[in-house]
Amino acid sequence: MRELRFQRPVTAEGRYVQQQGSRERYGHVVLAFESCDTPGLTFIWDVAETEIPLMYRQATLDGIQSWFGSQAPLAGYELQHTKICVVGGSHHETDSNDLSYTFAASNAFALAVNMSGLLERKLVSPFERLLS
Predict the structure, then answer these.
(1) Fewer CB atoms inside 10 Å of the end CB: C or N, the chain?
(2) Please, are residues 44 and 54 in contact by the beta-carbon 8 Å criterion?
């Protein structure tokens, strides 16, 4: 297993806004990534309930972890000694749902990895792949 570790702090914003039939989907997160001494992944929810309801916490984490499954783009890698903090974002009372936050977090993670230069290749989020 290869370790993926942020060498410097990076903040990235991910959004998912999509019209699906008569409904719109909306998710928006701001994630801060940094190296830490704790083994594994530390996930901190540091955002007010008025910005993003706590019920989207697991979906946000799932969006990050979706990169690391056996069939995922980063299969063979693992996040180690990494702290990820949800520091901002927003929601829509009727248009937000779990899947929207999963996509938004996935987009933010891809952006953070690309901005930090952790890989030789550019990550393309699942949402971006759907649009291409």
Answers:
(1) C
(2) no
| 100-112 tens-digit pLDDT | 999 999 999 999 9
Distance CA 107, CA 104 (A): 5
C-alpha span between 111 and 33 (Å, rounded): 11
Nearest-angstrom CA–CA distance, 24 and 16: 10
pTM greater than the 0.85 cutoff: yes
Output the DSSP codes for the chain. Answer: -EEE--SS-EEEEEEEEEEETTEEEEEEEEEEEEE-SSSSEEEEE-S-TTTS-GGGHHHHHHHHHGGGSTTSTTTTEEE-SEEEEEEEEE--TTT--HHHHHHHHHHHHHHHHHHHT-SSS----HHHHHH-
State the amino acid at position 19 in one-letter form: Q
